[in-house]
Amino acid sequence: MFDTMTMTKIVGSVCGALLFFLFGVWAAGSIYGLGEKGHGEHAAAVYPAAVEGEETAAADEGAVEVAYADVAATADAAAGEKVFGKCKSCHKIDGGDGTGPHLNGVVGRARGSVAGFKYSETMASVQDPWTAEHLYDFLKNPKTYVPGTKMGFAGLPKPEDRANVIAYLESLK
Question: Residues 95, 160: one domain?
Answer without folding.
Answer: yes
